[in-house]
């Protein structure tokens, strides 16, 4: 057998949710995570997650890393890395088979640098703190199959959303192209949220948890702009003239 045909490593762009902790109260963290998961189970459940302790450490707030990892796993979240931890926290994580994001490690600090703005799909950050008004997230490149995007605000996409992709927003979603994947607006229960799209060919659309699947969307005219909204707990899809 040709040894080169056994396996291969390939570079790929993957998007792992980053859990940024601002509190070390394990019960409050659990409660907030349960709320997040309940609001968007398709996005969070059985999802890999990288947890960031930098805010806690900067404010001298201790946390039991082993207990945190155990709690995440109990909630069907799978820790795949620790960021911003001190040497002891990193050692605790490694003992539980959670690797260290060495580029952001406190034991291996890096000098601050100017971050270039690009069009890459940003990583989702599940922030455990009081919600604040956030500007709309804008994406200018295609969202491909297997990619997931979460915006804690309105979400604006200028390129197509491929089949197998999933986009979610706590506010409105605007897609100035074709939607072939799954789009969920108002995922925190905002019944006033709306979805706007130039060409609806979606696998699923949802407003505040009320949804229609591809079977329900077969009669929708394609290549025409539409808006999706709730009226009396019913999902309305209306063509825009």
UniProtKB/TrEMBL annotation:
The keyword Cell wall biogenesis/degradation does not apply. Pfam families: MinC_C (PF03775), MinC_N (PF05209). One of its GO terms (biological process) is regulation of cell division. Cell division inhibitor that blocks the formation of polar Z ring septums. Rapidly oscillates between the poles of the cell to destabilize FtsZ filaments that have formed before they mature into polar Z rings. Prevents FtsZ polymerization. Residues 138-237 form the Septum formation inhibitor MinC C-terminal domain. SUPFAM superfamilies: Cell-division inhibitor MinC, C-terminal domain. It comes from Nitrosomonas eutropha (strain DSM 101675 / C91 / Nm57). Belongs to the MinC family. Residues 8-79 form the Septum formation inhibitor MinC N-terminal domain. Interacts with MinD and FtsZ. InterPro entries: CAP/MinC_C, MinC, MinC_C_sf, MinC_N, Septum_form_inhib_MinC_C. This is Probable septum site-determining protein MinC. Keywords: Cell cycle, Cell division, Septation.
């Amino acid at each position: 057998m040709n040894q080169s045909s056994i396996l291969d490593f390939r570079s790929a762009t993957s998007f792992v949710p980053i859990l940024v902790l601002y509190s070390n109260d394990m019960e409050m963290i659990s409660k907030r995570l349960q709320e997040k998961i309940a609001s968007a189970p398709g996005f969070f459940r059985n999802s890999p997650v990288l947890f960031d302790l930098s805010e806690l450490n900067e404010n001298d707030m201790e946390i039991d890393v082993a207990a945190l990892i155990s709690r995440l796993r109990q909630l069907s979240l799978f820790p795949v890395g620790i960021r911003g931890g001190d040497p002891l926290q990193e050692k605790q994580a490694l003992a539980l088979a959670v690797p260290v994001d060495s580029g952001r490690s406190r034991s291996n600090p890096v000098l601050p640098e100017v971050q270039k703005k690009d069009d890459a799909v940003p990583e989702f950050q599940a922030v455990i703190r009081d919600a604040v008004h956030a500007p709309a997230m804008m994406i200018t490149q295609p969202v491909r199959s297997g990619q997931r995007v979460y915006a804690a605000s309105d979400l604006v996409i200028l390129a197509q959303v491929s089949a197998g992709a999933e986009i979610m927003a706590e506010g409105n979603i605007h897609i100035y192209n074709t939607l072939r994947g799954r789009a969920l607006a108002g995922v925190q229960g905002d019944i006033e949220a709306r979805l706007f799209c130039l060409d609806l060919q979606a696998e699923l659309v949802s407003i505040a948890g009320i949804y229609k699947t591809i079977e329900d969307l077969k009669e929708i005219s394609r290549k025409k702009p539409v808006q999706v909204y709730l009226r009396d707990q019913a999902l309305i899809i209306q063509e825009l003239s």
